[in-house]
Amino acid sequence: MTGTRVVFVQGDITRQSVDAIVNAANSSLLGGGGVDGAIHRRGGPAILAECRALRASRYGKGLPTGQAVATTAGELDARWVIHTVGPVWSAAEDRTALLTSCYRESLRVADELGARTLAFPAVSAGVYRWPMDDAARVAVETVRNTPTAVEEVRFVLFDDRAYGAFAREAGR
Questions:
Q1: Number of structural domains, the chain?
Q2: Which pLDDT tens digit goes with each residue over 111-151?
Q3: What is the pLDDT of residues 23-48, one digit of tens each?
Q4: How far is CA 108 from CA 57, 128, 131, 161, in A?
Q5: Domain housing 91
Q6: pTM for the full model?
Q7: Which phi and psi (to 5°) does residue 110 adopt?
Q8: Is residue 36 flagged as an active site residue?
Q9: Quick check: helix, strand or coil at residue 33?
């Protein structure tokens, strides 16, 4: 463990009061469904404007899977949104390293920003179909084993199923 406090909350990630909220983004960075759409809707147009600027400069082809980049948080109760692109789950190919990278890279970006509190969703466990128990294992293990100056990582889980999977993983 890195000394980082790990907390589990059932609720809406867009309602969290933290330094940075991690967005389970799609590679376009231009919004979408699930967590991504909710963050863009609640955060307002400033997030989309910065995402468009990133696409026009560094990420013309989109943000690669497993990478992370920060923008303003707009109207959210946070300073930044850290966008990361999770892998789509595959039964034929082990993409665990990419999912692990989402959490490590988000923590790296948070450290660069000076964020002390960070809220994560269950990256890839929604429309990207990553099995929830395994998504929880990867998320919790990675956060526990990644050196960071972040003082509190909050996993914000939308429903009972996700919260239960993460809580079980935390007890291991």
A1: 1
A2: 999 999 999 999 999 889 999 999 999 999 999 999 999 99
A3: 999 999 999 889 999 999 999 999 99
A4: 21, 23, 25, 28
A5: 5-170
A6: 0.96
A7: -60, -40
A8: yes
A9: coil
